[in-house]
Amino acid sequence: MKTWMRLTVQGVADLFRTPLSLAQTLAVISLVAFLGAFFVMVLGNLEYQAEQYRGQVQFQMYWEVGADQTVVAGQWKELGLLAGLEKVETFTPDQAMDQLAGSLEKGTGLDGLQADRLLPATALLQFSLPDGQNREWIDNMRTTLGTRPGVERVDVHPLQSAGAGSWIAFFRNLFWPVIGFLGLVVALVVGNTMKLAQLQRREELEILSLVGASPWYIRYPLVVGGAVQGVLGGCIALMMLGLIYLGARDVLGGAPLWVEIRFLTGQEIAVFLAGLILVGTWSSMAALRR
Amino acid sequence: MIDVQRLSFSFGSQWVLQDVSFRVRKGEFLFLSGPSGAGKTTLIRLLHGTHRMQGGKALVAGFDLKTTPSSQLFRLRREVGVVFQDFRILSGRTVADNVALPLRVRGMKDEIIARRVRAVLRSLQLDTRADRRCEELSGGEQQRVAIARSIIVNPKLLLADEPTGNLDKPLAMRLMEVFRQFHRHGTTVVLATHNRELMAGRPEARVLTLKDGRLLSEDEDPVGRVS
C-alpha cells in the first residue's frame, strides 16, 4: 500500500517536471472540457425551463405610461383572483426603473429621471392551461386582459414548452456525438502527453524495467498523471463555466428576460469529473501499453 | 540454472550469435570469454530478457525465454542481477537511490533498504559516496554503483558484462573477490570478459569462449578449464 501511495505521489510530482508541457495540455483539456460542460449546462437549463413552463402560458401586461397607480394596483388585486393563475409578478414604474438601472452599468444617468413618465406599470401572469385548451383559450384570455381600463398592450408567450421541447430534442440528439467527440479530443491530448513523457523518461523507465519493476510499477505513475491532468482540466473548466454562469445569471435573470438559469448540479459535476478521470486514465493506459 | 540450445540472434541480416548451446549448473561460476564483437554482450542481454529470443531455446532460472511474455519478464529479472557494460544507472539520482532501486521496485521497507544499501556500498568502498549524484562520479565508481545495484538483491543468477572494464587492477581484483563471495554463498555467476587476468587462478570457474558469434567447444577454448 505504501508503495502505491508513493507511486501516486510520484505520478503527480512527475507532471510538474515539465511545467510547460503540463500547461499546454491543461489548456487544451480545460477548453474542451469547458465546451462539454457548457453544452451540458445549456441542455440542463433548457430542460429546466421546459419543466417549469410545461402546460403553462405567460402573459405580460403593459399599462399606459402615467396611468394612475392606485387604479392599477386595484386591477392587480382582481387579476390575482383569476382562475388557473399560477404566478403573478407586478412592477410599478419605480420598480421597473430600479430593475432597469440594476441591469445597466452604473452612472448611466437614470437616477434623476421620473420613472412614471418613462416606464409603464407591468404585470407578468403565468397560467396553467386548462385540459384540452390552448390557442382559443389563450386568445380569449389575451382579449380579456387587454380590454381592462388603462391597459395598453398584452404580450403572450404561448406554449413555451413546445418551442423548448424542439430545442431539447435537437440538443439531446447531439448529446452523445458531441460528448463523444470532446472525450476523444481529451483522450488524444492526454494520451499524447503521456506518450511524450514516457519517451522523455525512456532511459529511466528502461532501467526500472531492468532491475525487475513490473509493468504496472512503471506505468502506474504515468497513468496517475493522466488522471490528474483530466481532473485538473475539469476543475479549471468548471471555474470558467462558473464565471460564465455568474455573468449570465445577472443578465438573463433581470428585465426584460426574467429567465432563471441554474448551474450544473452536484451529481452532474461528479459525473463530469469522473468522466474526465476515466478518459485521462484510459488514454494514458492505451498510450503506454507498449 | 541456464540451458541454452541452438541459440541464434541477428540484427537485421547481421548474425551476432549462431547455434550457441551450453548449460550452466546452479552454483557454477562461468566466464564468457572472447574478443570484442564476439557476441558476449548480446548473449548476456538475451539471458536477461533485454533482447527477445529469435531462434533456439533458452531456459534461465526456470523461465523459458522463448515463451515468457514481455509482461512477465520482470519475474525473471527479480531472480537475475545484471551489470551492463554501459552501467545503465540513473544520472540525477544519488548513489544510494540507484543502488536501492531494485529493492524499491520490490516494495521493501525503507529501513531494510537503508540497511542493505549501507552494507553493499561499504563492501564496494562506495560508502563515502552514498549521497553523491551519480554524474559526479568517475567511470570506475559508476561501474561499482551498477555492480552494487545488481548484487543488493542477492540474486540467484548474476550476469555481468565486462564488470571490471573501467577499474584499475587492484579494484578489479577486489571486485572479483566480491563476485567470488557471492558465488560461495550459492549465487550462479556468468561473467563476460576479455580480460584473461581475471580468469587466472579461478579453479572453480569454467570458461566458454565465443568467437564471431559461435561458441567454441571447451576443448577448443584456448584457456579451457581454468586451473
Written description of the protein model:
The complex is a heterodimer of chains A (290) and B (227). Chain A is 68% helix and 10% strand. With 290 residues, chain A is of the alpha+beta class. In chain A, helix 1 packs across helix 9 and helix 9 runs antiparallel to helix 10. The longest helix of chain A is centred in the middle third of the chain and has 41 residues. Chain A is elongated. Chain A starts with a helix and ends with a helix. Chain B has 227 residues and is α/β, with parallel strands linked by helices. Helix content of chain B is 31%, strand content 25%. In chain B, the strands form 2 sheets. A 6-stranded mixed beta sheet of chain B has the order 6-7-8-3-9-10, sandwiched between helices. A 4-stranded antiparallel beta sheet of chain B has the order 2-1-4-5, covered by helices on one side. In chain B, helix 6 links the parallel strand 7 and strand 8. The longest helix of chain B has 16 residues. The model of chain B has no long low-confidence stretch (mean pLDDT 86). At the A-B interface, helix 8 of A face helix 3 of B.
Question: How is this structure best summarized?
Answer:
Chain A is of the alpha+beta class and about 290 residues long.
Features:
heterodimer, A: 290 residues, alpha+beta, 10 helices, 68% helix, 10% strand, elongated, B: 227 residues, alpha/beta, 4-stranded antiparallel sheet, 25% strand
> Could you state the order of secondary-structure elements of chain A as H and E?
HHEHEHHEHEHHHH
From the alpha carbons, calculate the radius of gyration of chain B and give it in angstroms: 17 Å
In percent, how much strand structure appears in the residues of chain A?
5-15%
Question: Quick one: biggest sheet of chain B?
Answer: 6 strands, mixed
